[in-house]
Every structure is written in structure tokens, then in C-alpha cells.
Amino acid sequence: MTWSWSTNGCVLCLLLCCVVESSGAGESACWSPSVTSCAECLRRGPQCAWCFKKDFLDTAGPSQRCDLPATLLRRGCEREFMEQSEVKVEVNATVSSTQVSPQDISITLRPGSEASVIVAVKQLERYPVDLYCLVDVSASMQENLDHLKTMGVALSFRMAAQSSDLWLGFGSFVDKPVSPYINVHPSKLRNPCSDYEISCRPAHGFHHVLSMTSNMSEFTRVIKRQRISGNMDTPEGGLDAMLQAAVCQRSVGWRPDAKRLLLLMTDQPSHLALDSRLAGIVTPHDGLCHLENNVYTGSTEMDHPSVGLLSDKMLENHMLSIFAVEKQQYQWYEELVRLLPGSYLGKLGLFQAPNLIELVVDAYKMLLSEVAVSVSVEDKAASRYWVSVSPVCPDGSTVKDQRCSGVMPGQTAYFNITIGMRSCPDSAEREDVTVLVRPVGYNESTVIKIHSKCACSCGPTRRCYEESQCGGSSGREQGLDRGLVKDSDGGSNWNCRADGSEVDCSGRGACECGRCVCDLSRLGSVRGKYCEIDDFSCPYRGGLPCGGRGVCVSGECVCQDEWTGDSCGCPVSTATCQSADGLLCSGRGRCACGRCVCDDPRRYGDFCERCPACQNSCQSFWNCVDCHLSHGLAQKDIAEHCNNTCAPLVGYVDVLSGRAEEMWIQCMYISNDGCRHRFQTSTQAGQTQLQISTRPECADNSRLLGTFLSVCALTVLCGLVLVAVSRLLLQKRALSPGGTAAEGPYHCPGKDLSFIPTTNEKTVTYRRDCLPDRPVEMHIQVAKMPLGDPWQC
After folding, report:
1. Is the peptide bond before 102 cis (omega within 30 degrees of 0)?
2. DSSP state, residue 712
3. Among 57, 232, 587, 625, which one has the highest count of C-beta atoms within 10 angstroms of its own C-beta?
């Protein structure tokens, strides 16, 4: 069964649905000389009406057909010939609901109109509860993780008074397993705690460990198996893990009819969006599930989710979040919770089981007693609609923050949702938009479908008779035949639209009698058959639009035949790029906008003719030349052997004739046998050529051998002469002044004889065995060599 009503009436049913229509603002609000069609009339406001009676005010212009309904009645237009704004609200009562009603609403709006509906949210008793524990298992959480081992059974007993059925799940997280968040040394990847002689598990973004279960013993067993991990920086990847736990519905095992709680336990803040750029991860998060074998695979590929994305996904999947954090991080998470609807923040000194159980129970009570709604409009139409929410709480109070607090089980909170339409879409006369009303934390929602009407049906005749002043009745009939009559299927005057355009006169003029009358603009003139030409919306060059070498059409320059470019500043001719040899840019570049752009960045000049650094390129061809030399220049199949070494085309010539200043670069290669091999390279049209001379420059080996032997003989002869001269000098030094050999005694100068002793005395002290306590001294004299004795060599 479907209930329907319009703005002329109101029906009282299970829910109160009312339609609000703006009041008129005077006759001038509708009538205007520029209004020449039914659609334009209705867009002036919901209070305006268009008279489509054929003979209405036969002598008046089309603008007189648009006015207030009361004014049109006085002028002789009956209501059956009026096209008016009509707002409709339809509630589908066949869709059953438990907590949120109604669940399916349809609204028809025109520009300037609005409609209001009532959405009721009922608080039930003893919901089934799914609680997913998402725990930070970094090294600092070791003691806190031990305290959780007894939480499962105790929490089940404690929640028995609040819920009819409690299921628990478990997951762990640390941080993104990439540098600089973790130590990427191989030993640290296997065991982040190796420095402390502790066995830790590898760091991970998110691991889903246990799906939702009512078996508390299994939950306790899973927690006892958990081991800590480690990372390097202070923040953790909590938001990354929260998003995966929320969107991976099937893997986690969220029940569709249960109240869903996501409990995050950590002692550190969390990374936010854009933090991953430190690790080179720049891809924004897509908000999808990326679990494979219960491991989050997108941790190293996508950035941390933004708070806005996380908020949307928590609402979309009906999640309530509980943050259990240590006191030191309370202020950081206090700012975060303000941005996440349906969140609760608890402060714990220690993560002991009794404290954590009390926190979960208190959070559950508070979250259920606070009822709030979130309204979202499709992005494509968000700018054309406005929405306001006015709650009416069970105690009769009305608040402005879109939520009711202190709602007890069995009570109902009402929310008055008002939706207004600002304007129609540019290209379509009708569009359908979906508005979602989501009570935070509830697994039911209300879907409002908006149908916008921007075209006129104009009653049973399907004609709006948009007549123009084309000169008498014959002119009007002629205008009707030329397409000046619009109906619901027609659109605008086709004579005033360019091919492919959906608006009259390019949106910069009015269509009168099948011809465009262009608007006046303070920026410059607007002209052309369809008002497509102007002198202000195109790029300027030299102070003139399109450089004075073209016409500005629809914001783009249409250049003269000999010019091109965005501002018609580039000549089409390539004559300015031809070098003296007749080639384009000397064959080493391309002509762009009348100037040469060289293929090789080392070249420059007006025609890419200069390249001082090109001689350095000879070395890059040495391997190719060596390959050809090693296989013999006379063979014809050398190219097959040197394919991997030589990229250019290789040829052989007897004499190199290319001129280096024009086309060829002269090079030389010295082989292992000392021969000089000359070659030259050239690059034309992106293709490199290599020519090798078949006449190497080699020295005569026999002459080299003779020269070598001569040098060796001369070196030996010089050595013998040097030895003989040295010996002769030594012999001369050994002769006395008189020319005889020094065979007599060595005579010292007389003045030195007194200083030469004849004997050398030495005193020796020793002990006798019989008289150990009485040492005996002995004097020993040793005669020196007589002065008169000759030296013996």
C-alpha cells in the first residue's frame, strides 16, 4: 500500500509527513520580461505558475503567461490551464521495520520547493551484541595483553543483564611493515625484539585472528596464544586496522541483527592519512576490504585512511566504536572521537580485566541511550539540495545537535528531516537523487528518493505555447512551425543551438524568433550565430586575443591558415628551421613553433649545428668497432656476431670523406696490436650510422724490433763504461801524494799522538766461592795495536 498527497493537503497516518511550501514574495517574484518558457517560469520559485491556455492574452508577450496563480485567475486563465510547482511525498508502508520507520520514502520537488518527513527511531531492549576486540600488540602492550586473558568469561556474565546474546571476536595490529616504521634488517623482520633476547612475532598492519563466536573458552584460548611484536616509531596503525575490521563483514562474521561494537585497545596515538608518504606510499585508501588468509594485504600499498573515510565506513556498516586508551593518550583520542559519530572514549590506568569490563559496559549503556542520525546526499547533487534535521526527544525537548540523550529502552525519538531543492541540473530536465538517513549504530536506515521535475507537462494538451513576438499572428504561427513551441519531450529552439550543444545561444544570449540575441558583457563583445565568438575568453598574445591572428570561438583560438598554437603564435611554415644544406634542423631535430628542437640535448644553435661535447661520444662506439675488428672486416656476416654490441647501422669505407662540421663526427680507436682505426658517426632523423675505415694505421714490426735491440746494446755499453770509470777513480784515491802505494805505517799528525793511549785498562770485580762475603778486585791491562803497525785489510 502506498500513501500519497500534495501541497494542497496533509494526511495523518502512522507517521506525520508534512510538506512545506514557500509563500509568495509578490508579483515581481514571478513576472519578468526575460521569462519566455514554462520551465523558466517555474524555476523562479514554487509560488509561480505558467498559463498554457492557447488564446490567453493573445496580444501580449510570452512573459505575461508567468505570474502568481491568483493573478492569472484574474486575467482569465483557469486553473486547469495552469502549470504549477507540485510537491509530493509518498511513504511505502509495505516495508516492515523494527527500529527505524519509515524505511522507504519518495519525494517530488521542483526548484525552490521543500518537503519535510518524520523519521522515528525506537530503542529496543536487550539487543544481541557483537564485540570485536582490536588490540595493539606492540612491545609496550605486553603487560596489558596478559590482563585480557580472563576478560572473555567475566564480560559475558557482566553483559548478561544488558544483552540477550554476546559474541566476541579478536584481531591484532602493530604498524605498516615497511621502513621507517619498522627495522627492515632481516633479523629484525623475523624477530623485532632480538636485541632484548625475546621472541616476538613479525610486525603487521592487521591480522584477523578470531571471527565472532559465543564460545568464551575459545576466545580466552586465542588471547593466551598471542605474542607481542614491535616497531620503531611511536604512533601505531590503529585506524588502518579499524577500517578493515569494519568493512570485512564476511571475514569478521558481523551478525546483521546485532548491535556492533568495535573496541580498540592501545597505549599510543595512531597514524593519520598522509603519514605513509614517509615510506613512499602515496595511494589513498579505497575503503575496501583487503584480507587474504586473514592478513591485511593492502598495508604496504595504500595510505592510512582519513578520519572522514573511516567515519563514513563506520556509519555505513552500523558500527559503534569504543576507545580504551591509557591516560597519557587520552587528550589525543579525545580530539579524534569528536570526529567519529557513535564513539566512546574510556581512560584506563591499567588494562586490567575488571577495569576493561566496566569500561565496555558503561560505553554500551551510554551509546544506546544516545540516539543520533546522519543524513547524506549523493555527491553528484549535494550542491543542488539542502537538508536540515530537527530532533524531538522522548522527553519533549528539541535540540540542535541532531541527537537525543538519555533515551531509555522502549522509547522512541523522532527526527524531522526537511529537504529543499535549490536548482535543476544543467543538462537534465529530471534526475533522481537518493538521500540516506542513518541512525548511528543501528542496522536499519531510511531511504528517501527525490524526483526532481524541471520540465513542464502543461496539462492534457502537452503544449506550453511559448510564443514570441515575431510580428502578428502569422508570425506566431510561423514561429510555431519553426520549432518555437516546446513540449515535455522537445527542449529548446533548435535554430538557436549549435551542433552538439544542449543550451540555446551557447548560454550567452536569448533566442528570439529562431535567432540568437547575444548578451552584453563588460569584458568585451559577444557575437556569432550562436553567440559562440568573443574577444576576452581566449589566451592573449601581444596584448591581443589569439595574437590578432585568429578568432576566439567557445574559449579556443581558431587560427588563420598560416598560424597555429593556443594563442596563434606559432607559424605553420618550417622555412625558419631549414639549415644551409636544405635539411630541417640539420637533420638533427624537429621544427616546433618556428624554432628547432634538437633530438640530442647536447646540441644547440639555430639549426642544432653546434655540439662541442659530441666528440665525447666516440668512446661509446669502441666496443662496436672492436667487435668488428675481432671478426675481421672482410667478412660479410659480422653484423650477426655484433648485434648485441652495435645499435647503429655499420658500414665500411676505404677513406672517410664525411665533414665533421656538417654531418659526421670523426673518431679513432687503437687496437691491442697498436694499430689506429679511424671511424665516423652520424645521426639523422633519429637513426645512427657508423662507418669504419678498412685501412688501419699500423707501424713496421721489424723496424720496431731493430730499434729495440739497438737501444738495449747502447744501454749495456754505457753501463760498462760507467763501471770502468768508477774503478779508475777508486784506484787514484788509493795512491799516496808521491805516487807510491800506501804500504807503510799510518802516520797520524803529531799533535794527535798525545791523545792516543798505549794500553787499555779494565777493572773486573768477582767473588770467590770460599769467601762469598769478600769480593776481590782484579786489574787487567790490554795492549792496543802499536801505532807503527800497518793496517791489514
Report:
1. yes
2. H
3. 625
Whether residue 104 lies inside any domain: the answer is: no
Closest C-alpha to 412, from 93, 15, 96: 15
Contact 287, 306 (CB under 8 A): no
Alpha-carbon distance of 424 to 381, in angstroms, equals 9
Based on the fold, state whether residues 192 and 275 are members of the same structural domain. Answer: yes
Q: How far apart are CA 458 and CA 462, in angstroms?
A: 5
C-alpha cell at 781: 791491562
Predicted TM-score (pTM) of this structure? 0.49
Coil, helix or strand for 12?
Answer: strand
- Amino acid 741 reads A
Query: 228 with 239, same domain?
Result: yes
In a domain, 319, yes or no: yes
Q: Residue 228 maps to which CATH number?
A: 3.40.50.410
Q: What are phi and psi of 94, to 5 degrees?
A: -80, -15
Q: Are residues 80 and 154 in the same domain?
A: no
Before 180, cis peptide (omega within 30)?
A: yes
Are 160 and 272 found together in one domain? yes
Q: What is the DSSP string of 42-64?
A: HTT-TT-EEE--TTTTTTS-GGG
SS3 258: coil
Distance CA 296, CA 533 (A): 57
Cα-based distances in Å from 693 to 580, 624, 626, 638:
28, 14, 13, 15
* CA–CA dist 300, 346 (Å, integer): 31
Q: Which residue has the cell 668512446?
A: 619
In this structure, the number of other CB atoms found within 10 A of the CB of residue 651 comes to 10
Contacts of residue 76, defined as CB under 8 A and 6 or more positions apart, other chains included, come to 56, 57
How far is residue 604 from each of residues 41, 48, 620, 642, measured CA to CA in Å? 66, 71, 21, 32
The DSSP bridge partners found for residue 324 are 265, 346
Strands of 72-206 (E only): list them: 82-84, 88-92, 100-101, 104-109, 114-122, 128-136, 165-173
Q: What are phi and psi of 372, to 5 degrees?
A: -140, 155
Beta strands (DSSP E) in 298-442 are 319-326, 343-348, 371-377, 385-392, 403-404, 412-421, 430-439
Residue 82 lies in a domain: yes
**Rg of the chain, C-alpha, whole Å:** 50
What pLDDT does residue 199 have? 81
Residues facing residue 552 across a β-bridge: 534, 557
Q: Is the same domain home to 71 and 209?
A: no
DSSP bridge partners of 651: 691
pLDDT at 299: 92
Instruction: Provide φ and ψ at 389, rounded to 5°.
Output: -125, 130
Residues present in the chain in total: 793
Residues 6+ apart with CB under 8 A from 294: 207, 208, 209, 251
The Cα angle at residue 248 between residues 247 and 251, in degrees rounded to 5:
160
Q: How many CB atoms lie within 10 A of CB 163?
A: 21
| CA 249 – CA 708 distance, rounded (Å) | 91
Q: Which residue has the cell 551557447?
A: 506
Instruction: Report the distance separating Cα 636 and Cα 638, nearest Å.
Output: 6
Q: What is the rounded CA–CA span in Å between residue 737 and residue 749?
A: 16
Q: Which of 131-135, 490-494, 585-589, 713-717 has the highest average model confidence (pLDDT)? A: 131-135
Interval 72-105: pLDDT, tens: 888 888 888 888 777 888 888 776 677 888 888 9
Please give the pLDDT value at position 767.
Answer: 52
Contact residues for 458 (Cβ-Cβ < 8 A; gap 6+)? 38, 50, 52, 83, 464, 465, 487, 488
